[in-house]
Design brief:
globular; Gyrase A, domain 2
């Protein structure tokens, strides 16, 4: 799996992904109603990740969940990251909280 060049990643972000590029990662933060809502979101993301066998790094801070995507074995952002980012956006398509 090949790392995408920054221009390709930026084009995908400009095309409607609700993520930001931070270095070699895609990052999305989502603010929920409370901790239980955050856990439910993480569980939904986890189910998608298991389905496609590609997993984000997850940070939960009470009602804010931050997801980070990168293909560690490739050393950056790949098509697998963009595909999973799109699927995660389908869970809740509004813009993230940062």
């Amino acid at each position: 799996m090949s790392v995408l060049d920054p221009g390709a990643v930026d084009a995908a972000l400009d095309g409607g992904l609700h993520w930001q590029r931070e270095g070699d990662e895609l990052v999305k933060a989502r603010r929920g109603r409370d901790f239980a809502d955050s856990l439910a979101y993480v569980n939904a993301v986890g189910a998608l990740a298991e389905e496609v066998d590609h997993h984000p790094d997850v940070d939960i801070r009470w009602n804010v969940v931050t997801l980070r995507l990168q293909t560690h074995s490739a050393g950056g952002i790949t098509d697998a990251d963009l595909r999973l980012a799109r699927r995660i956006d389908e869970l809740e398509p509004e813009a993230p909280t940062r």
